[in-house]
Automatic annotation (TrEMBL):
Entry similarity comment: Belongs to the glycosyl hydrolase 2 family.
Keywords of this entry: Glycosidase, Hydrolase
Domain of life, per lineage: Bacteria
Domain Glycoside hydrolase family 2 catalytic: 290-456
Residue ranges occupied by any Glycosyl hydrolases family 2 sugar binding domain in the UniProt entry: 73-166
Annotated Glycoside hydrolase family 2 immunoglobulin-like beta-sandwich domain residues: 181-282
UniProt KW Glycosyltransferase keyword: no
Name of the protein in its database record: Glycoside hydrolase family 2 TIM barrel-domain containing protein
Presence of keyword Hydrolase: yes
An MF annotation (GO) of this entry: hydrolase activity
Length: 808
């Protein structure tokens, strides 16, 4: 690393430091507390990010409802004492919260700083005037009011659930979110880089300063630009600089290459402030006929929608937990993420930049008209403009963001009020970023109450959604309505297509209905209570159950893959999430929509996408092979790079199958016979892959597998340990649902347990959990000391297992 770059990193890290450790927390859990704290208040010490709701018990009577995960909100208090060095008394000190859910109010040393209703957007307060310096203590108090429920259609979590930072700067410094970097012209030979920087002068006199911006590729200096300015006292000044990068290395989903711009402010030849901005150089457009074009290459967006919770960890942000989710999705072939339906944690966007995802950054789930009684609509008039501006300023340098969404399924989309609001939001968005198109998730953009086949969606027979027809949007965002996709160019001849939300297929991992080729719509209608279903609130893991507004996974993808003008899709959803347990209500408490379950275990349809969305050679055969003798079982196979698959039961062929037309799987209907199910895929008569599924005997032992056996001793890093229940021969026992107990030795702790069962009411924060379909997950977090972490799993009647994780 060059000396210059090393100095830059050191000073940047000094400017912004973590403020997460050693908070005190109190939850007002009774009316006696009456929205107050005092000398008798009982506090416990913890680190943030923190979600208090995930620590509670599932409650059928929770005011959040089953849509909110049946977990309670409430009113919480956080406080922390801290010292500020005497030498910082001449500097500016601010505190930054990346997100507090919700209605946060903050005091420092008794001085009220402000309130922020929106739980998903970051905010900053300057605290310089109120601080004590040197040996004197300071106290910060944060009140978080998530007591009015319901205020969300999904599980929100409660508390300081994202990171907190202390920022210390010179009085002359780059403003918070003060850079805006664009690449107006990009070719293989050269890229122009435009750098807009907002400088803030909090001195009482004007200053003459030098602003130098250096662009690095990793540790190597690429180019720099310098400019002298004079800035008046207590003034903000925006500086425009331009640079050129020769032979730029372009950002793409396959190779997400990043550059770093380091802005230095100097007074009298002394560097007094440094600010680092990561960005990517890429050229893209959404084309009416060719879909999404990235760096001159047509790229189909193969995306998923994601809520913000992290399964058993709740809504408390952890960078490794987000990274694991993205790794699992990337392995499936996902190249796009929609931040449904709110600004995400900054760490998600940083990871999408580094890992190569096409992000739709979404602002709102509602505007003025509420979806739940106490939601953000109550705060809309006073806060929507500030919240949107802050999101744009915070996020607009991210290479991974390719479109802004100003709303999701907004009720006002159907009237003139919605058009006026959309115009306002569009104007704000384009004021702060003109480089990305604007969309909204509309449900649907066209009238669905017509016969698409008969009418062929001729213009005269189509009723256009007022928002879609307003001309405000740069992309027509389709939520569902897959039957209309093929007619997009007729209905919207001037505006490109993006499927903002698709599918809504439903599955319980490891559960299979007897007959797999019957499509079921659960519930019958979105506005009717679901009657019926399966025992234990299960849903078949064959791709055969959909919501009435959606489709199976195969149905929508078949359409999207077929046409160039269909830019791509964001499937609802990549992972299961807490709350919204469609089609069921209580006792279900988490969703069935995910391609991956709440624990991070893929459902079978994951491999359909993997066979379609990746270049990896795939042969996935299911279900398990533990049934009653003679029972008829449907066996499916997802495969690619082969002409056929042949299936054998105990060495005897039961037939070859090949995909016909636009088929995405093959199927056999055969009687169960204990033993070995074997599938062989072939290409031109040659074996491509072989897969076996064996009938498991009685559960006998536990097996532990860590996603990473070495983690950082930083109090944040995680190891996700999969627990498999096996028979004596090492075969997964697919029907095992034993309760498993966990213990951990060493400087660390168990922070989450989960099986992916949407009906489980066991705490995610306990030391035991019941397996689903032979699998369970335990999450181990490091402490602040290096050494061995020894995790042991035990269950009655099973041989225990131990695994060692090294923290260093």
């Amino acid at each position: 690393m060059t000396a210059c770059k090393k100095s830059t990193d050191e000073q940047f890290n000094k400017r912004k430091v973590s403020f997460n450790a050693d908070w005190s927390f109190h939850l007002n859990d009774s009316l006696v507390d009456k929205d107050t704290i005092g000398n008798s208040t009982k506090w416990r010490t913890l680190d943030v990010p923190h979600d208090w709701s995930i620590e509670g018990k599932f409650d059928e009577k929770s005011p959040a409802g089953y849509g909110g995960g049946s977990l309670n909100g409430g009113l919480g208090w956080y406080k922390k004492t801290f010292k500020v060095a005497a030498e910082d008394s001449t500097k500016i000190t601010s505190i930054t919260f990346d997100g507090v859910y919700r209605n946060s109010e903050v005091w420092v040393n008794g001085h009220y700083l402000g309130k922020r209703p929106n739980g998903y957007i970051g905010f900053q307060y300057e605290i310089t005037p109120y601080l004590n310096y040197g040996d004197k203590n300071n106290e910060i108090i944060v009140k978080v009011d998530n007591s009015k429920q319901p205020n969300s259609r999904w599980y929100s979590g409660s508390g300081i659930f994202r990171n907190v930072w202390i920022e210390t700067t010179d009085k002359l410094h780059v403003e918070q979110w003060g850079t805006y970097i664009t690449t107006p012209k990009v070719t293989a030979e050269k890229a122009s880089v435009s750098i807009e920087t907002t400088i803030k002068n909090q001195y009482k006199e004007s200053k003459k300063a030098t602003i130098k911006t250096t662009i690095f590729k990793e540790d190597k200096k690429v180019t720099s630009v310098t400019q002298d300015i004079t800035i008046n006292a207590n003034e903000n000044q925006t500086l425009n600089q331009s640079a050129e990068v020769e032979s730029p290395i372009l950002w793409s989903v396959e190779k997400p290459e990043l550059y770093t711009a380091v802005t230095q402010i100097s007074l009298d030849d002394k560097i007094i402030d440094e600010y680092k901005t990561n960005f990517g150089i890429r050229d893209f457009k959404f084309d009416l006929n060719k879909g999404f074009i990235l760096n001159g290459k047509q790229v189909k967006i193969k995306g998923v929608c994601m809520h913000h919770d992290l399964g058993p960890l709740g809504s408390a942000i952890n960078t490794r937990a987000i990274e694991r989710q993205l790794e699992i999705l990337k392995e499936m072939g996902v190249n796009g993420i929609r931040t449904s339906h709110n600004p995400p944690a900054p760490e998600l966007l940083d990871l999408c930049d580094k890992m190569g995802f096409i992000v739709m950054d979404e602002a709102f789930d509602m505007w003025k008209q509420a979806k739940t009684k106490y939601d953000y609509a109550n705060d809309w008039d006073n806060w929507h403009k500030q919240d949107l501006i802050d999101q744009l300023l915070r996020d607009r340098n991210h290479a991974s963001i390719f479109m802004w969404s100003i709303g999701n399924e907004i009720p006002e989309q159907w009237n003139e009020t919605g058009i006026e609001i959309a115009k306002e939001l569009a104007a704000i968005t384009r004021q702060y970023d003109k480089t990305r198109p604007l969309t909204a998730g509309m449900n649907p953009p066209v009238n669905m109450n017509i016969d698409a086949v008969t009418l062929q969606f001729e213009k005269k027979n189509v009723s256009i959604n007022p928002l879609a027809g307003s001309g405000v949007l740069d992309l027509i965002g389709y939520n569902y309505a897959h039957q209309t996709f093929e007619h997009h160019l007729k209905n919207f001849p001037n505006t490109p297509f993006i499927a903002t939300e698709t599918t809504s297929g439903l599955q319980t991992r490891g559960y299979y209905d007897a007959v797999s080729d019957t499509i079921k719509k659960w519930p019958v209608s979105w506005d009717k209570k679901f009657e019926g279903g399966n025992p234990g609130n299960t849903v078949s893991a064959y791709d055969q159950v959909q919501t009435p507004w959606g489709s199976t996974h195969e149905a929508t993808w078949k359409i999207i893959k077929k046409h160039d003008f269909l830019a791509g899709m964001y499937v609802w959803t990549g992972f299961d999430y807490i709350g919204e347990p469609t089609p069921y209500e209580w006792p279900s408490v988490s969703s069935y929509f995910g391609i991956v379950d709440l624990a991070g275990f893929p459902k079978d349809v994951y491999y359909m996408y993997k066979s379609e969305w990746t270049d990896k050679t795939i042969l996935h055969v299911f279900p398990h092979w533990n049934w009653k003798a003679g029972q008829t079982v449907d066996v499916w196979a997802y495969y690619n790079k082969a002409d056929e698959v042949e299936l054998f039961v105990n060495g005897i062929s039961v037939g070859k199958r090949s995909k016909k037309g636009d088929d995405l799987h093959v199927m056999w209907r055969i009687p169960f016979e204990a033993g070995t199910l074997k599938a062989i895929s072939r290409k031109d008569g040659k074996v491509v892959l072989e897969k076996e599924i064996k009938t498991a005997g009685n559960p006998s032992q536990l097996k532990l597998t860590a996603d990473r056996s070495t983690i950082k001793a930083d109090k944040n890093d995680l190891s996700f340990v999969t627990v498999d229940i096996l028979d004596a021969n090492g075969t997964l026992a697919p029907n095992a649902n034993n309760e498993i107990n966990f213990s951990l030795k060493g400087n660390g702790k168990i922070v989450g347990v989960c099986s992916g069962d949407p009906v489980s009411h066991e705490s995610f924060k306990g030391n035991k959990h019941t397996a689903l379909a032979g699998k369970c997950l335990v999450v181990v977090q490091s402490g602040d000391k290096s050494g061995r972490l020894e995790l042991t799993a035990k269950a009655n009647g099973l041989k225990q297992a131990t695994i060692v994780i090294t923290a260093e």
